[in-house]
Design a protein that fits this description.
Layout: H1 2-22, E1 29-36, E2 41-49, E3 54-66, E4 86-97, E5 104-115, E6 121-133, H2 139-154, H3 160-171, E7 173-174, E8 179-180, E9 185-191, H4 196-221, H5 228-247, H6 250-257, H7 262-265, H8 281-294
Antiparallel strand pairs: 1-2, 2-3, 3-4, 4-5, 5-6, 6-9, 7-8
Length: about 300
């Protein structure tokens, strides 16, 4: 288990190093917070807030133990016995850049292990993926995002991208709004790719592809100027992000149901979001255009 934890920590460290370089403001709040969980396990929460590049960015690692696996960890598709406990570990990333022309991004990779009476692995599976939530749609960015995902996953199994991208569209959906959260990416759960070592290697490759793809988008958009109205629209749409994370997201539910560390769980939320009962005609027009784009099948 320690070897597996080390590999997940390496994923976290690589992403932290890349995102720290983006933040040039000396006034930014940058916090690296290691913690322990009374029930067993712990982790490290890394957060950048109120900077020149990021409004909020969280790169979190956790490895926890428990006796009863929350339903949110496995969905409704399988039932696992955790008589002797479980261990769950992974890395989650959420980026809310200041510039509304740079999309919000999310990535997570995780490993769940069911233990036997000797504290050895009895059963296991992996899950994760990443998705993109733009506020102003750029087709070049979205195409690159999906093509990079397909090229990477084709190296493991040519059926994965088609299945995972479909899963992503279905999962990152807000039922009470009848809207997708973003333009998709890849998402999977309850998966085994050959051996446990091969599966973690695939997670490492997915995390690397996410980071490279998102950095490409950042480099293409970071110098674009934006208006006060565009920033207002970004914060309005971030409200949808909050709604999904608090109402529909299984990762948030798992953290809370497993008595996780609440500040770390909620570090994925944007620093500022807004909800307006009555929007201006300009905002309504922007939203109509965006929602239409979100409903498009961007998979390649």
């Amino acid at each position: 288990m320690k070897t597996f934890e080390k590999r997940f920590k390496s994923i976290q460290n690589e992403i932290i190093a890349a995102y720290t370089k983006l933040e040039s403001s000396k006034r930014a709040s940058i916090i690296s917070d290691s913690w322990r969980r009374p029930e067993g396990g712990g982790g490290r929460t890394f957060v950048i807030q109120e900077g020149s590049f990021f409004d909020n960015c969280a790169v979190n690692f956790s490895s926890i133990f428990g006796s009863k696996l929350p339903k949110s960890a496995i969905g409704n598709s399988i039932v696992k016995s955790t008589r002797y406990g479980y261990q769950a570990m992974g890395v989650s990333v959420i980026c809310h850049p200041k510039n509304p022309h740079i999309p919000t991004s999310h990535m997570n990779v995780r490993l769940f292990c069911i233990l036997d009476k000797k504290n050895k692995i009895k059963d296991w599976w992996i899950g994760g993926g990443y998705d993109l939530t733009p506020y102003f749609v750029n087709e070049e960015d979205i195409s690159h995002w999906h093509k990079s995902a397909k090229i990477n996953l084709d190296g493991f199994n040519k059926s994965y991208y088609g299945k995972f991208s479909k899963n992503c569209n279905e999962y990152f959906y807000i039922p009470h709004r009848d809207e997708r959260r973003g333009v998709g990416g890849v998402f999977f759960d309850n998966k085994k790719h050959k051996s446990i070592d091969s599966s973690i290697h695939m997670l490492e490759s997915i995390a690397k592809t996410y980071l490279n793809s998102y950095q490409d988008i950042i480099n293409n958009r970071k110098n674009l100027s934006f208006t006060k109205d565009e920033k207002e629209f970004q914060e309005l749409r971030r409200g949808r992000y909050v709604e999904f994370n608090l109402v529909n997201d299984r990762g948030t539910a798992f953290g809370l149901q497993s008595n996780g560390r609440t500040p770390s769980i909620l570090s994925s939320l944007p620093l500022r979001a807004s909800w307006k009962y009555r929007k201006s005609k300009e905002m309504q027009a922007k939203e109509k255009k965006l929602v239409k784009a979100l409903g498009k099948d961007w998979n390649v």
